[in-house]
Design goal:
Keywords: Signal
Protein name: TIGR04219 family outer membrane beta-barrel protein
InterPro entries: OMP_w_GlyGly
Helix content: under 10%
Strand content: over 45%
Structural class: mainly beta
Largest sheet: 10 strands, antiparallel, barrel
Mean pLDDT: 88
Number of strands: 12
CATH architecture: Beta Barrel
Distance between the termini: 37 Å
Length: about 240
Amino acid sequence: MRKLMMAMGASMLAAAPVVSADILGVGATFGYWDADYSGSASKGNDRVDLEQDLNLSSDSNANLTAYFEHPVPVLPNVRLAYTRTKQSGNGQLDSGYDLLVPGSVRSELELEQLDLTLYYELLDNWVNLDLGLTVRDFSGDLVIIDTLGRSNQTKADAVLPLLYLAARFDLPLTGVSVGGDANAVSFDGDSVYDFNVYGQYELSLLQLRAGYRQISLDYDDGDDNLDIELSGPFVSAGLRF
């Protein structure tokens, strides 16, 4: 994974930087993501379906971003992003799952990730294009509790390098724009794909955004595996200075 991160960083530097910001720019956003889970989790040879077996429903979702852009052509811009989703449910297991008793179960699945993205602006006019590298500190935790109070935990923790690409198209003199961004990596059987598309309205310092986001994750951590997809609409509000 370290060699992959170094190769991705070298590729990013080879492409940079064509354009730099004219002035300093600082911004932050807060958003709500109505994400639904699908997929499965496994521990050893035992597997559970998140929808059919656990009947998970959304409890809370938080999305925060902050970024800093500058006119220095050699140095990359910086973006921080935090995502946390939490879902719980009451389901039914037809067979044992790593020594749990078949029958009614309670479960809770939490996904948390913190991104540090270094990126360059390749275009900066009515068409905006950014390219960079994201380092993602990721953790996933699934806890299942049976009727006897015994619990089983499936965990995944990793620091992953991902390629970052963002594009936005501004409609001149309207404050309206459409765009999307993506983070992605696939290496040694593990993969992460995270993308969103959105429409945005900007009024003075205020940015209002609505769109759709999807994360697909397939990651092994020893005997623990999370093969899940989160998807759904989101809304956010931010300030840009």
